[in-house]
Amino acid sequence: MAAYEMTGTVKVVMDEVTFPSGFNKREFVVTTEDDRYPQDIKFGCVKDKTALLSDIQVGQRVKVTFDLRGNEHNGRYYTDLTAWRLEPAAEAAAGDPEPPVDDDSLVPEDLDSDEPPF
After folding, report:
1. In this structure, which of 23, 37, 59, 89 has its CB flanked by the most CB atoms within 10 Å?
2. What's the pLDDT tens digit per position in 13-26?
3. CB contact set of 73 (below 8 Å; sequence gap of 6+)
4. How many Cβ atoms are within 10 Å of 84's Cβ, its own excluded?
5. Cβ burial, residue 64 (10 Å; 0-12/13-18/19+)
């Protein structure tokens, strides 16, 4: 199974839930700004991996390594993002940000005429 990574800001850390079978799970939400619109992505940690969330604070930038899991139950399909590594995001490792774009440089020089550009 392939491992995936995502970097974002922790939005919510939920309480740990223990089921009657002894199985425990803890979920958290990370907001990513990699897309045009921010996305809130919910992850889950199971069993001993719930301890990964003990030192994580809301508002902290993190890098999440996770597996994508899916299953079917009674004709319905479910997808889970199961986190198994969680670490503070290294801002320096992300590379230098791109320089800001000067909006005036995007306008063609010949646009000063009154004729439409098409």
Report:
1. 89
2. 999 999 999 899 99
3. none
4. 14
5. buried
CATH (residue range 3-91): 2.40.50.140
**Structure tokens belonging to residue 40:** 């809130």
Q: List, as one string, the DSSP characters of the chain.
A: --EEEEEEEEEEEPPPEE-TTS-EEEEEEEEE-SSSS-EEEEEEEEGGGGGGGTT--TT-EEEEEEEEEEEEETTEEEEEEEEEEEEE--TGGG-PPPPPP-GGGGS-GGGGSSS---
Each residue's pLDDT tens digit, 81-107: 999 999 998 753 444 445 444 555 444
Six-digit token pair at 97? 């940000």
Distance separating alpha carbons of residues 118 and 116, to the nearest angstrom: 6
